[in-house]
Amino acid sequence: MTRKQRRLNFVLLGMLALGAATALVLTAFNDSLVYFYSPSDLKERQIGPERRLRLGGLVEEGSVKRDGQTIRFVVTDTAATVAVVYNGQLPDLFREGQGVVAEGRLDNGVFQAAEVLAKHDENYMPKEVADALKKQGHWQEEKSAK
Amino acid sequence: MIPELGHYALVLALFVAFAQAVVPLVGAARGEVAWMEFGRAAALVQMLLIGVAFGALTWAYVVSDFSVANVAQNSHSAKPMLYKVAGVWANHEGSLLLWITILAAFGLAVAMGGRNLPPGLRARVLSVQAGITVGFLLFILFTSNPFDRLSPAPLNGNGLNPLLQDPGLAFHPPFLYLGYVGFSMAFSFAIAALIEGRVDPAWARWVRPWTLAAWTFLTLGIAMGSWWAYYELGWGGWWFWDPVENASFLPWLAGTALLHSAVVVEKRDALKSWTILLAIIAFSLSLLGTFLVRSGVLTSVHAFATDPARGVFILALLVIVTGGSLTLYAVRAPALKAGGLFAPISREGSLLLNNVLMATAAGTVLLGTLYPLIADALDLGKVSVGPPFFNMVFVPLMVPMIVVMAAGPLLAWKRGDLPGTLMRLRVALAITIAAFVATWAVMGGGVGQLAAAGGIALAVWLFCGTLAEFAERIRLFRVSPGESLRRAARLPRAAWGMTITHAGLAVVVAGITGSSAWQVEKIQVMRPGETVEVSGYSYTFTGVVEGREDNYAFTRGRFEVGREGRPITVMEPEKRQYANPPRPTTEAAIHGTFLGDLYAAIGDADGTGGWVTRIYFNPLVPWMWTGGLMLVFGGLVSLTDRRHRVGAPTRGRVAADAAAQPAE
User: Fold this and answer.
1) Given CB atoms, is A96 within the 8 Å cutoff of chain B?
2) Are residues B160 and B271 in the same domain?
3) Are B261 and B407 contained in the same domain?
4) Contact list, A65 vs chain B (CB under 8 Å)
């Protein structure tokens, strides 16, 4: 085999891998990209229960209710609110008045969370939540400091 | 006083590093022996200075000097000593100091060890290494000084995040960094080779042990982090495709590819410029990992407190290092002479396939990790890319790799004999098919179990293929058992290392398959005296006790676990409330068995005498940790190979090097 042939093989193999990867990425993107919405975004847009999405905002004070292992709470960005139902264990750092990100589906205006994301650090505000709150003009810089 | 000493030592180290980045490089270009030798002395001085700085910060933590801002923010006088020390690197500034300390230690290792390195190459390697140090020292001194003072000093500190107060995590960052920074060695060697315009088998032989060491540490670091997430976060999961996890996984993928392509350079003098490129990529991905973790541009469960200025600085560093080295590569790589030819079906061919698939996998993981940033920048909306994406992309790429991985080591160099190799694997193939059918039948058949049975079959295939290759080497059953043993004892350690790591990966694959396909999860409210059944084990909840330790209060649940009426164990998961800083954590109770982990965690009280409990059966998870340890052990065994230390081939180009040889 000549050098040229070998190089051709190399290139073909590379192209094949690249093509396969592109195909995989495109299909996977189609099925598994999860968009982030604030409660105001959700109100504006009509999104059906077939789409998995992320909801972020603050847990409204006094809204957390437990019923066995089912937990209900309200996520707010101070302009709009969305009721959330979650069946499972909340992360240790889940608190009223703190930032939260939930992943799940919106069913008839109620957000069915499959997952509530935990943060390792309670000073930390998820970036998307911070941006969403900034949009509503309710962002206090000192909260983000540190 | 001591913190100021540490700060001063860092500033001095910056000047030394700057000199070291320039003088040996110029010396190597001009053939000035004294200038080249300067690099070795500078590396030693630099290590001492950075060691002083690291010692000073550690001292401040040990004596709880809260006048140092970093200590006040991350430590507390009531913390156990282990976590005071671990606190040094459990924060941004300190972890960067650890990074530089390890970088300096690697630099010193090149300066002192490797006597058979040509002085010119060593001088250039030391210069590149010092260049990286300069970048990071500037970063520390200008944006993240760990020695900043607080005035007035607080009476006590904020304490360390209790999630991090854990023996598994105390040593996770140092190992991860040993891996990250270890790839800087491969990088420095690659840049030095580009400057020299020369890559040959000797070069590969010098690079391999460093890459291997980095890879081994990184593997251990990743395994420790994953293990920690498994038992500490209380979700029963061990890998979440979180950006920060990906950040450590990307260099691992590139490093694995590099390790294998360096073999081809060493044995066959081929794939040279590709290997150089991989070395650049592996280290760039390490830097990118640092950037992702430190800048907080991505939403992650880890999310350290962040500061945009720092992110920009690391990004600039990343652009200079990656951009600069790729430019150098573009200019110099065509000058590298192409080496030995090989047929597509050959050992080289299989290693190349490993490389292509590893690199592609790294590329797709990188895309998935960065896509939220890209989408945000292009205003495509805020997205997150979750585990489904990574599983869908990563698994199909790894399947062919593992299939080939069993056969590759059996192929001959240059031109392999595929039918012959398959003949030698016929037993392995038969066992694999049997394993597939058995797994499928035992798990109840059906379409849903096909993938899981396939995963197990893949693991069996790799395991048996690896053993078949080993049996071939020691000519098992074809010569007397005593002769086989003698052959095994005489095998190079690198061969042992390969067998152990490949078998280890097989065990990991089985563990991953089992835990993702057959995990059983039950979440319920339980009152004392109630029993639930999970995967054939009965868990009787007997209530909770409350208590208090030095730095936390706990609520401890108690489960009596039995199987078919026989008591097996008692499991006591806890919820802890730490005092400094005030924060709750979950401590799952885990009881390992050969086939899987029994895993119990306790949640909140429901207010009427019941408790939310989560009980899992995690099949084959212990296999993952066992396999992970095998990977690390195999890496260590391979590192002890004599060939890495002595008898490195001498270079052909004697004249040029001899001129630069110091009179010893």
Assistant:
1) no
2) no
3) no
4) none
